[in-house]
Design a protein that fits this description.
With about 220 residues, this protein is of the alpha/beta class. About 45% of the residues lie in helices and about 10% in strands.
């Protein structure tokens, strides 16, 4: 396997659960479902600590200072323990799982730079991490969200779908998969399997595609 960790990023109703199922068709891979943005908050806590150390460590030696002892904070250990706690308590891999991760749709960042910073921070904590970015025809995403009565703002859906496509073309640690493409021609998923480092089995992929996943295939 090329990566120990795989993170699937997508907007809601874009086929991300189907991508989750496709990746889980690989024997040594376990991709969990959503965690309600818990992991994003862990990453943000690491970023906040890093910023505090950078800005205030030089003024934290005296007990009278407002940032007392922040300069002694161990950022590397903090990040490592966040990763291990998330892996142990949420991802819960089995010994045979060489690649683990999860898919999430809660990425309503205000700017593309904020999203990219999030990915960069993940790579600091998870050095062997890859990102699978899933997109879909934006009008179908919007329509499916409306049918499912999701509260996602159309502006956020449009932004994220666009940003994922752009970012995937600029980073070596990203693989773009487009729902409309792989549903029409499952063989196009070979690039995903090459990215993960797994053998592509078209029959196994077709078996996954034949099963409903989050009902997105019927909407």
């Amino acid at each position: 396997m090329n990566y120990r960790y795989i993170f699937v990023l997508a907007s809601g109703r874009s086929g991300s659960t189907l991508v989750q199922g496709i990746l889980n068709s690989i024997d040594e891979v376990k991709i969990s479902g959503e965690n309600n943005g818990v992991h994003r908050r862990l990453i943000e806590s690491y970023s906040l600590l890093k910023r505090a150390i950078h800005r205030h460590a030089g003024f934290s030696h005296e007990v009278e200072t407002p940032w007392y002892t922040i300069g002694k904070a161990n950022l590397e250990d903090f990040g490592r323990e966040l990763r291990l706690a998330f892996e142990k308590n949420i991802l819960q891999p089995e010994p045979h799982h060489k690649t683990i991760g999860f898919k999430e749709i809660r990425y309503n960042f205000p700017t593309r730079a904020d999203l990219e910073h999030h990915l960069d921070t993940i790579r600091e904590i998870y050095p062997s991490a890859g990102f699978v970015l899933n997109t879909r025809n934006i009008n179908d995403i919007i329509l499916s969200n409306a049918r499912a009565k999701h509260a996602a703002a159309e502006r956020h859906l449009r932004q994220l779908n666009q940003w994922l496509g752009e970012i995937a073309g600029e980073r070596d640690d990203c693989c773009l998969v487009h729902y409309d493409d792989y549903v029409a021609n499952p063989a196009r998923l070979k690039t995903l399997f090459d990215f993960v480092g797994a053998e592509f089995d078209l029959a196994r992929v077709n078996a996954v595609l034949a099963r409903p996943h989050s009902s997105v295939t019927s909407k």
